[in-house]
Amino acid sequence: MGTNVITSLTRRAALQLNYICRHQSTTSTCSSYDLVIVGGGIIGCATAREIIMRHPNMKIAIVEKENALAMHQTGHNSGVVHAGMYYTPESMKAKLCVEGLKLSYEYFCKNNIPHKKIGKLIVAQDPAQIKRIDELFDRGTKNKVPDLQIVEKDCISKYEPKCKGEKALWSPWTGIVDWAVVCKSFAEDFRKMGGEIFFNCEVIGFAELTESKGSSQLSCISVQSKNRCIPTKYVLTCGGLHADRLAVMTGCDVNPRIVPFRGEYLLLNENKRHLCTTNVYPVPDPRLPFLGVHFTPRVNGEVWLGPNAVLAFSREGYRWFDINIKDCIELAKFPGLYKLCYRYFLPGCKEIIKSIFYPLAVKDLQKFIPELTYKDVKRGSAGVRAQAMDKDGKLVDDFVFDVGTGMIGSRVLHCRNAPSPAATSSMAIAKFIADKLDHDFKF
Ligand SMILES: Cc1cc2nc3c(=O)[nH]c(=O)nc-3n(C[C@H](O)[C@H](O)[C@H](O)COP(=O)(O)OP(=O)(O)OC[C@H]3O[C@@H](n4cnc5c(N)ncnc54)[C@H](O)[C@@H]3O)c2cc1C
């Protein structure tokens, strides 16, 4: 048996990887894996579980660059189980969120995952927002969000005693859960069914591997990290904050790019937790991409206020001073970013000021719960959103999947944009991807 690596990397990297792969060739052959999934976040783990359930004889591995699962977006989010009223009817987000919500609750109950269906109140504070409440109700109804109710001003306190507003939308199916716990549970199911997980394995390229067996030639993909090459027939990437980089490795267009937006939270002091018992959200501004700073109780009893949205200087930059030179240079060279900054200059500056002087952010929150003061909160943790952006600086709203070119590209499917509510939608996204792989790759 002979192996030959035709790589898509630079010549130097190719020679190095060629060396590693040749030295692994006694154990690594084209039949080693049927599918390798890059990324141990909730999308990678939910999909790995779904595929191995459908095809128990397939040999599947997840490769993750960190030493644990759920280390990025999946482990740094609001922990909300979204019900689906925000999203454009008929979009993938709308369909997969509503389906994902039902599948998630079924899964939590079956697997004893701590969660609470505490509901959500979207609260209007002025006449323009009151109109948006009615629009959100219509949108939610079109999206088949269960049991939405319009709440008039005088009844708001029945749902959240300390909350004030002019009108609200009540969603009883919205809930809370720790998505990192859910992700690890998916991974555990996957492992029990024979799946493997490799940690500390950052994928840096894909190469074509050809193997001669007698007179016939087999070809497959070598998934390459600094210390390991994993031969596989097919690949799925779910790289979150690095999704665009993984896609480019197989000949996909560089756009949409991932632009990292940090979302910082404030933490409500323990003696003030009674101020908030349900999710309280503002009416989202349709001109802005994110849902707005909200009050979110956590399953562990904490209450988080946030997240804001500020540009991060590192794709994994959880603090202001986390700066990654490579990420900054890429951002500086990306024309879409300048167009976005031009479009959102004023709201962007306001977010930065409120991030630095957080009592100003508390002022916004006081509109909803007037009893809240800046002394009741302290700085909490943060997450970084992997937001796909096109070259015109427009944020890509819906989930995006992509395939590359050539022999390698045609065997690799990339999940390029999985923003919120992708955690809620993860089980439905997993089914969507599994159907696509069954169809396109003939599993
Ligand atoms: C602040 C914030 C709040 C949010 N709130 C909610 C919410 O309340 N409800 C909700 O439903 N959604 C929410 N979301 C969205 C949700 O968290 C994400 O959509 C979801 O976690 C995406 O999962 P993922 O698997 O695609 O990405 P990730 O969780 O980021 O996982 C990607 C994985 O790929 C790995 N990886 C990347 N590159 C490589 C490589 N080259 N080699 C190997 N491994 C690699 C990374 O290390 C990472 O573990 C929120 C997100 C943020 C940031």
Taken from the alpha-carbon principal axes, the silhouette is globular
Ligands in the model, by name, code or SMILES, are: flavin-adenine dinucleotide
Task: Estimate the helix proportion, in percent.
Answer: 25-40%
Give me the number of helical elements: 13
Q: Averaged pLDDT, please?
A: 93
How many separate domains? 2
Main sheet?
9 strands, mixed
Give the CATH H-level superfamily of the largest domain. Answer: FAD/NAD(P)-binding domain
- Low-pLDDT segments, ≥5 res: 1-8
Report strand %: 25-35%
State the CATH class of the largest domain: Alpha Beta
Distance between the termini: 26 Å
**CATH architecture designation of the largest domain:** 3-Layer(bba) Sandwich
State the total count of DSSP E strands. 21
Q: Which fold name fills CATH's third level, the topology of the largest domain? A: FAD/NAD(P)-binding domain
Condensed summary:
With 443 residues, the chain is α+β, with helices and mostly antiparallel strands. The protein has 13 helices and 21 strands.
